[in-house]
């Protein structure tokens, strides 16, 4: 009953410590080396004091096929603020296949972290559990093969995603090119229709030109004919004019000759 009251008192003190926002006076970390087949499993415990404190480091290891080793005290003593200590240990025999559990329990007491009940000092506890699995060497080989295959699979997956993205971009470009091609085809059809229209107009213009050229040839021939007729008329008119002049001259001469041969008229009678 006394132990229960002591544990409750320690827990209450720790709860009050956390409620006040004060940090734990120690930091504990546990690590282990990669198990070597046929050799004991080695582990290390790092304890750092954040303020002056007395600690007791204990460890209990669960080994495959052997069970718990039981609590072993690795160290019991005082630590100054900022001091760090590393404690090492190993399993009770060669590493076996299976999972190891390293349970580290660090009790600590300081002027701020302890409880004395019935003349006995009760430590607060900081527990850390670390697990490690020992595999069969062949399993490690197959695991490495699996890891390699997984890495290759990830690389292939990334390559596939890249190719899919490129394919999507190419499909988008192809769609755009098809749309552009349809647009060009429509424009080509419009140009072909315009060309046919222009060819039709050109044929009509050529026909009109041919007709006008025919009419022009007729008009030129008619003008040439008129010009020839005009020249002939002018020649005839000139000839007639010359003939008229000749006749007029002959007439004048004849008139003058008749006047010369006529007798003179008698003088008028004298006046009364």
List the helices and strands and how they pair.
Layout: H1 2-19, E1 26-32, E2 40-49, E3 53-63, E4 67-68, E5 72-79, E6 84-94, E7 98-109, E8 115-117, E9 120-122, E10 124-134, H2 137-261
Antiparallel strand pairs: 1-2, 2-6, 3-4, 3-5, 3-7, 7-10, 8-9
At CATH's second level, what is the architecture of the largest domain? Sandwich
> What general form does the structure show?
rod-shaped
CATH topology of the largest domain: Immunoglobulin-like
What's the number of domains?
Answer: 2
Helix percentage range: 40-55%
Instruction: Kindly report how far apart the N and C termini lie.
Output: 217 Å
CATH class of the largest domain: Mainly Beta
Derived from helix and strand composition plus strand pairing, the structural class reads alpha+beta
Number of helices: 2
**Number of distinct beta strands:** 10
Largest sheet data: 5 strands, antiparallel
Considering the protein shown, what is the CATH homologous superfamily of the largest domain? Immunoglobulins
Pattern of helices and strands: HEEEEEEEEEEH
Mean pLDDT: 84
What does this 3D model show about the protein?
This protein folds into two domains: 2-134, Sandwich (Immunoglobulin-like); 136-230. It contains two helices and ten strands; from the N terminus they run αββββββββββα. Mean pLDDT is 84; it is low at 1-21. The longest helix has 125 residues, at 137-261. The chain has 272 residues and is of the alpha+beta class. The chain is rod-shaped, with a radius of gyration of 68 Å. The strands form three sheets. Strands 3, 4, 5, 7 and 10 form a five-stranded antiparallel sheet that branches. The protein has a three-stranded antiparallel sheet with strand order 1-2-6, with no helix packed on it. Strands 8-9 form a two-stranded antiparallel ribbon. Helix content is 53%, strand content 29%. The protein has helices at residues 2-19, 137-261; strands at 26-32, 40-49, 53-63, 67-68, 72-79, 84-94, 98-109, 115-117, 120-122, 124-134.
